[in-house]
Amino acid sequence: MVKICCIGAGYVGGPTMAVIALKCPSIEVVVVDISVPRITAWNSDTLPIYEPGLDEVVKQCRGKNLFFSTDVEKHVSEADIIFVSVNTPTKTRGLGAGKAADLTYWESAARMIADVSKSDKIVVEKSTVPVKTAEAIEKILTHNSKGIKYQILSNPEFLAEGTAIKDLFNPDRVLIGGRETPDGQKAVKALKDVYAHWVPEDRIICSNLWSAELSKLAANAFLAQRISSVNAMSALCEATGANVAEVSHAIGTDTRIGSKFLNSSVGFGGSCFQKDILNLVYICECNGLTEVANYWKQVIKVNDYQKNRFVNRIVSSMFNTVSRKKIAVLGFAFKKDTSDTRETPAIDVCKGLLGDNARLSIYDPLVTEDQIQRDLSMNKFDWDHPIHLQPMSPTSVKEVSIVWDVYEATKDAHGVCILTEWDEFKTLDFQRIYANMQKPAFVFDGRNVVDVEKLREIGFIVYSIGKPLDSWLKDMPAVA
């Protein structure tokens, strides 16, 4: 029986290994992590992450050919194929701080693999890593090999949170990069055979190592660039009276462009886009490609501009101050159908409003109070370190309350901010919300989920990103 071990039981490792176990019943799959609470959760009825369909997959396989363990060294030693899915956070100090990837956890994993291995291994990069990471890992393993052979493969994930299980069942492509040597190609075939249990062969792309590593960064950079492009257009739409939804539809019907990732919003978030673009910027700078680095930096700048513009629009609309005013924040996750809050635009929007002394009442159907408090007290990129290295959240961030009912959040509020596109926000009883708010009552739709005209008929003053401005707002420009 082929044995697979995955180091790292997070958003990538857990779901990916669960699907491999389901689709390959003849393979034993073990997910290992040093975090006892995380592994305990994977072995319980309440999994540590929320992903539609994940529960069912785990429960079908767990205890049969899918196992979760803290005995890292034992299972790494026994495995034929080792996936490494550890964090690669952005460095916060030293050379490349604020841009370069911190490979501390990856290096530790590589050294541990070298220490405990007693047989040849295929080591698979599953984390998002800078180009040429495989070379560094090869050096660590080779110099500590004790006669054991290692082949390093790059197999980047292209999952979208909220649809990860669907993406794993039916991927656009599976990318496997390996050395162009006989042993390297043999390793590529071994991993290809795993995916071939359910992925059509024409969707399994094989490349050299460096192409595979760079493809992940490039894919996220291109997707983020589309969002920043349409968000830049949203500002122009507001200034001219155009409607960003209509503009997006018109350009999205061009088959050369396509309709995906053209939804304007308060900004992109999640664990990948900003981190990967900063990584790409750093690699470009290290290779003397200043103009290329500056191009990708601008994608981040437009994202920050969009969040600042949204906050400024709120403040300027409400008589240029939100001091002591209650503002309901609906949604804190970076997108719907996930509890993930990493780099969510809600953090910057909430901090911007708190900076003007607003009182916030936050509702999200999946994100816990402790996570919200922790996020609002964290420094940038702290989120990407293990939880025991993150700051303890204070018992309460000043002027923030977290509630579990939308109508409680909006009661007596001066304004409502929609920051996540949860489906339930489309069907709220806005007549009831309006009746219980302070007047004038404002709605700031950061995800373009509400029926703007219907809300205006109720009596709301509505700001929806990239849509023609409410007459109330036309003389109050948001300068970011």
Condensed summary:
This protein is an alpha/beta fold and 480 residues long.
Structural description of this entry:
- It contains 17 helices and 14 strands.
- It is of the alpha/beta class and 480 residues long.
- The chain folds into two domains: 3-199, Rossmann fold (3-Layer(aba) Sandwich); 220-473, 3-Layer(aba) Sandwich (Rossmann fold).
- The strands form three sheets. It has a six-stranded parallel sheet with strand order 3-2-1-4-5-6, sandwiched between helices. The chain has a six-stranded parallel sheet with strand order 11-10-9-12-13-14, sandwiched between helices.
- The chain is elongated, with a radius of gyration of 24 Å.
- The termini are far apart.
CATH architecture label name of the largest domain:
3-Layer(aba) Sandwich
Give the distance, in angstroms, between the N- and C-terminal Cα atoms: 59 Å
Based on Cα principal axes, name the global outline.
Answer: elongated
The class by helix and strand makeup works out as alpha/beta
Secondary structure tally, helices? 17
What's the CATH topology label of the largest domain?
Rossmann fold
Number of strands: 14
Strand line-up of the largest beta sheet:
3-2-1-4-5-6
CATH superfamily of the largest domain: NAD(P)-binding Rossmann-like Domain
Strand content: 5-15%
Q: What do the pLDDT scores average to?
A: 91
What is the makeup of the main sheet? 6 strands, parallel
Supply the CATH class of the largest domain: Alpha Beta
Residues in helices, as a percent range: 40-55%
Number of domains: 2
Which radius of gyration do the C-alpha atoms yield? 24 Å
